[in-house]
Structure formats: C-alpha cells, structure tokens
Amino acid sequence: MAAMDATSGYDRMKELKEFDESKMGVKGLSDSGITSIPRFFVHPPETLSDFKNSSSTCTNIPIIDLSGIINSKDNDHRLKIVEQVKEAAKTWGFFQVINHGVPISVIDETIHAIKAFHDQPHEVKAKYYKRENELGGVMYTSNNDLYRAKSAAWHDSLQAWMGPEPLKVADLPEICRNEVVAWDKSATEVAETVMELLCEGLGLEAGKFKELTFLDTRVLVGHCYPYCPQPDLTVGITSHTDPGVITVLLQNHVPGLQVKHGDEWVNVRPVPGGLIINAGDFLQIISNGEYKSVQHRVLANSSKEARISIVIFFNLAKWKGDGYHGPLPELLSSEKPAIYRNFSRQEFVENFYSKGIDTKSLIEKIKIQN
Q1: What is the largest CA-CA distance in the chain?
Q2: Which residues pair with 328 in a beta bridge?
Q3: Cα 155 to Cα 114: distance, rounded to the nearest angstrom
Q4: Which helix (H) or strand (E) covers residue 267, if one does?
Q5: C-alpha distances in angstroms, 343 versus 151, 332, 338, 351?
Q6: pLDDT tens, position by position, for the chain (370 residues)?
Q7: Distance (Å, rounded) from C-alpha 233 to C-alpha 215?
Q8: Residue of 269, 265, 275, 271 whose CA lies nearest to 295
Q9: The whole model's pTM is what?
C-alpha cells in the first residue's frame, strides 16, 4: 500500500505517525469512545474473508495433564506423557498443560497486574512507550511492527527482555514489577519441564535443550486486546508463527486465539489454570521437521472486557562456535538427512525484524530443495 493514496488524498504514513506519537495505543482509542477505527487498522478483503469463512469441527487443542511427572519415579507414566507431548507437537504444534505446578494465585496475580498496567491512563504509560531498541530492556507500544506491517492490528503490548542478560528490575513498571519477575520464574520452570519432555520425544537426553541454552533468551510480552468497535474490519494479531524454540502463553477468560489445524481454524478455549505451549520455527528446524510450528492469530475483541495474554518467548542464548545453527546432528542419518541448512544468528534476527510478523518465512528460506 502506498504511503499516499492519490485517489483519496489519504496519507497513511501521516496517520500512522500521529497515532504512534500520541502514545495512547488502541486502548486509548477504545477508551475514548470511538465508533469507527482508523483506516490503517482496516485489513484487506482477502484477509477478512478468511476470518468470516473460518469454522472448525475441532473443539480445542490437546490438553495434557502434567501431574505426577515432576519429581516422579513412575517411568511408565512419564513415557505416556512424553508420547502425548510428542504427538501434540508433531500434529498440532500447540497444546495446553494443566497441573503444571504453578499455583492458581500466581496465575491470577499475573493477569491482574498486566491488566492493571494497561488500564492506567495513557499519560502514565507513555513514559514506557518507544520503538527503538526492540532487542532489549522494557518497552510499551502498540504493534511492534506498526511501520513494517501492511495493516495494523488491534492490540497494545508491554515487552520486557528477561534474559539472557538479567533485566534491571527497577526498569519494570511498578504496578506489575513483582508479578512480572515472579511470572518469568514460574513460566521458565514450566518451559524447562516441557523442553525435557520434547527432548525425550526426540530420543535425546532430557536436559539437552537446557544445555543448548534454549531457556536463556526470554522475552515477556503482556498483550492487551481492548474492545474494538469494528471487529469485522481488523484483527487482534495477524496470522503468524513464532520464531523461537517454544512459547508459553497465559490468557484470561476472554476468547480470541485461533490455531490453524489442517485447513481449519480452531478456537482455543481457555482452560482455568491452564497454560498454552506452542512450538516455534526454531524448534521445527532443530528437530529437522519432527515438531511443527503452526499458524495462529487473534481475533479483534468484540467484548467490552479486554482480552489479556502474557507470553514468554524462549530461544537460545549461545549460538554454535561458528555462529550458526541448524538441525541437531544427533537427529540426522542417511535415512533422515537434514531438510534445512544451517543459518546464522544475523539471518535469524534480520528475518524477524525486517518486516511484519509472518508465517515460517525463515523455514522457507533455509529449506533444502531436493
């Protein structure tokens, strides 16, 4: 789309900048009582028709009960859970875990704290609003890819890099500071358990992913999807796959997340106390295609109550000595040759930050053509 529409005199870039520089986010727009959304949020007919035509015979993504595997000596039970996780990561790329060891009080406090941050007047939040330095520190913004995407999406985000370099806790907003630190710890413990199960599903030692620093780079993002007056014209988040190893997602009871399964979009129903796990592109690559990253998206919110989700993206901190990564050598053989080439950290970073979020673009770039 051109910056200036010659037929209507619409200056998209001017409107984008005005919205961005107001630092009010979509929450501010929603709270102001607008009845129509700015034009740069409107998505093209082909995107919107896909939303209208989406329906599914599936009722939910797989739910896996982790009770009894943490510090358990029951090997048969663990093997059963390993098989469930492997199957879910292979065929769905998404699953929910319950009885994961995180108290419901911690979950509720985390959701409440992120909501409390977004509920503040935009003048209070504005001190954190920025776009520079997406690769570190704390930032609040509306649409990380606002200037890179073809159309904006109806959400605001508080982002904090929790690792590999320890975040200065004082940099976090006071209203959610303690809860963000606590959630990083809790979600990382769950991620470690899930990564152990994923490793065993590949025939690797349980601690292999941890040894490879796959838990160490962590970005926590607290999304707010406020009420949208025209939800049929925009999206909450555009369809995409996550770039990293795995993602741990906590959400409140307001629906909106959809996952692509085959040719259908499946509504993900929030399970009280449950956490959603999904495989990222990096996991698909290093598993040599055994595990799959899957498209997902969020609908624009038609509910008067905001949808809140807290996501932690996990990725490796230490690249191989030569600065490259690819399918794990332990998983390759003459019968199972590599289907992806090695790629560099620079390729990985540039692929994500050079455009709007998208689906498996790195995977497509590095796929070895037969």
Answers
A1: 70
A2: none
A3: 13
A4: strand 264-267
A5: 29, 17, 13, 11
A6: 445 454 467 899 999 999 999 999 999 999 999 999 999 999 999 888 887 665 555 678 999 999 988 666 678 999 999 999 999 999 999 999 999 999 999 999 999 999 999 999 989 999 999 987 667 899 999 998 899 899 999 999 999 999 999 999 999 999 999 999 999 999 999 999 999 999 999 999 999 999 999 999 999 999 999 999 999 999 999 999 999 999 999 999 999 999 999 999 999 998 999 999 999 999 999 999 999 999 999 999 999 999 999 999 999 999 877 788 999 999 999 999 999 999 998 898 888 777 777 778 899 999 997 6
A7: 38
A8: 265
A9: 0.93
Pairing relation of β-strands 63-65 and 94-98? parallel
At residue 340, φ and ψ (nearest 5 deg) are -130, 145
Closest CA relative to residue 293, chosen from 366, 359, 347, 213: 359
Phi, psi of 121 (to 5 degrees): -55, 145
CA count, 13 A, side-chain hemisphere, 133: 10
Given the structure tokens 């995409």, which residue do they identify? 240
Q: 298 has which bridge partners?
A: 237, 257
Helices 75-91/177-201 angle, 10° precision? 100
